[in-house]
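Hello,

Our lab assistant flagged a job as stuck in the queue for most of the afternoon. It eventually completed. Since we weren't sure the result was trustworthy after the delay, we are filing this so someone can double-check. Below is the sequence as submitted and the structure that was eventually returned. Let us know if re-running is recommended.
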Amino acid sequence: MRRVLLCFDTRAGSTARTADMLASCLRELGASADAVPLSAAKLPGPYDMVVLASPLRFGRPTGRLRRFLADNREALSHVKLSLFFTCLVLWTVEGASKPPFPLFMDPGLSGPPKKDRFLNMVEFAHTLSFTSRRLEKALAGLSPDAVGFLRGSLDFSRLGIVDKLCMLGLMVFVRETVEGDFVSPDAVRAFAETLLA
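-- returned structure --
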């Protein structure tokens, strides 16, 4: 039986909820799975797979997740490592190279590829190519077995004033950013199946 530790960081609860949903799906599929906040994660532990999760903000994982990767690089190099990120939009760009890691993309995130020359700077920070480069830098030599991008949610009542202002500013430049719950249980289950394949 595969033993999976899901370590998540979250800003307003969407990534935590998705990690719990993923852990439940993994258990339904026959694995042992625990979901814990990054701050409570103990590595290496009795796990043969670690899944790290965080929301994406402007194409980057949270600082806590980046620090966790740096601080636990040795332990993570000895287990099967996967990651997932929650976000509201993530575009592909025509002609962009494929990410250097196995990719799972929530079907609700991907529309037709965008033309690079028509993207503003904020929109470009929400592309798969930009995010992949940021993630490669954070991984610094670690090779994940899977990286998933799942739609999250935006609930202004759960945000502090700084995050509210950031999201309102983002909505000006990225029209597809809207308030709502976009977490897809079907996409989460499909990602769970990918992890255990």
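-- support follow-up --
The delay was a queue issue, not a problem with the job. The result is valid. The chain has a mean pLDDT of 89. The radius of gyration is 16 Å.
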